[in-house]
UniProtKB/TrEMBL annotation:
<dbReference type="InterPro" id="IPR036291">
    <property type="entry name" value="NAD(P)-bd_dom_sf"/>
</dbReference>
<feature type="domain" description="NAD-dependent epimerase/dehydratase">
    <location>
        <begin position="10"/>
        <end position="215"/>
    </location>
</feature>
<dbReference type="InterPro" id="IPR001509">
    <property type="entry name" value="Epimerase_deHydtase"/>
</dbReference>
<dbReference type="Pfam" id="PF01370">
    <property type="entry name" value="Epimerase"/>
</dbReference>
<protein>
    <submittedName>
        <fullName>SDR family oxidoreductase</fullName>
    </submittedName>
</protein>
Length: 311
């Protein structure tokens, strides 16, 4: 009997890390992105090129899949307009294939919490355009599950960090500068606790949801280490690179380094994440699956090593 196909949609750090994780776990993996074809995007996978905003293309890309993982993203300033169409195309493709759908999600639907710890029971009180958009998408995903259209589970993560992660507040704006002795970015109040999700834990969490149909129909917080202040995170990185960091703190969203004016203009409405504690609790997932997050010190060491290898 042929292996079931696990289709990973999207070729960003989460999609690529997830595809590699699924291959390592013995699955037959299909990667789907808008690339130009040729070699597989991840070794050991079948590679399909498709525009996943197009329903017919999504149906073709997911043909024969048993599980689909939605890790597709678009340029930040285009998300509000583009993501609803991608959602509908992916849902249609999954429904046509009879596939279960695992969605990589964000904390945006919760909106400002006043620093309260975020659990899966936290109310969805988003006040921003992107937050309200994400909340509306999530409600549609859960309705698709409730109606029997597509079995769905949602895996939420905090800000990413880890090997391959560039476009993050703990990514390309921090590690290259830390290694070279140049300036690194800090946002808002560095003394507030802030959760960061290690990309390997995000991938493993999504894979576990994909392997476990009994967990469908709800939101899960993917394994995330206990929150530390950003200043503490910077101190850990300084210890790993052997020199104190030169941190420039942004009190408000403005262009800086890899984040241009277009990006920061779109990000400004979410800057509240750096002016109040952002603490995510993933204990429900950890209890259900018996797996915990990578310790922050270990994840940062792997990340520094990866950035060092990039030169």
């Amino acid at each position: 009997m042929p292996q079931q196909i696990h289709a990973v949609l999207g070729a960003g750090p989460a999609g690529r890390t997830l595809a590699a994780t699924l291959v390592a776990r013995g699955h037959r993996v299909r990667t789907v992105d808008r690339g130009t074809g040729g070699a597989p995007s991840v070794p050991g996978t079948e590679h399909v090129v498709a525009d996943l905003s197009d329903t017919a293309a999504a149906r073709g890309a997911l043909d024969g899949a048993a599980v689909a993982y939605h890790c597709v993203n678009v340029a930040y300033h285009l998300q509000t307009e583009a993501m609803p169409g991608i959602q509908e195309a992916v849902l249609e493709g999954a429904a046509a294939a009879g596939a279960r759908l695992v969605v990589l999600d964000t904390l945006y639907p919760y909106g400002p919490t006043g620093g309260a710890v975020m659990t899966e029971d936290t109310p969805w009180n988003a006040t921003t355009r992107k937050g309200r958009m994400r909340a509306a998408l999530d409600e549609r995903y859960l309705e698709a599950h409730r109606s029997g259209r597509v079995p769905v589970s949602l895996g939420r993560a905090a800000d990413f960090y880890g090997p391959g992660v560039l476009n993050s507040t703990l990514g390309g704006a921090v590690f290259p500068g830390a290694l070279s002795g140049s300036t690194v970015l800090g946002m808002g109040d560095l003394d507030l606790p802030h959760s960061y999700s290690y990309i390997g834990d995000v991938a493993l969490g999504l894979a576990l949801l994909g392997e476990t149909p009994a967990t469908d129909g709800r939101v899960w917080h993917l394994p995330t280490a206990p929150a530390r202040t950003t200043r503490e995170v910077h101190a850990l990185i300084a210890g790993l690179v052997g020199a104190p960091l030169k941190v420039e703190v942004l009190e408000e969203a403005r262009a800086w380094g890899p984040f241009d004016e277009v990006f920061m203009g779109a990000y400004a409405e979410l800057f509240y994440q750096h002016t109040e504690p952002q603490v995510m609790d993933s204990s429900a997932f950890e209890r259900r699956f018996g797996t915990g997050p990578t310790p922050l010190e270990e994840g940062l060491a792997r990340t520094v090593a990866w950035y060092r290898e990039q030169g």
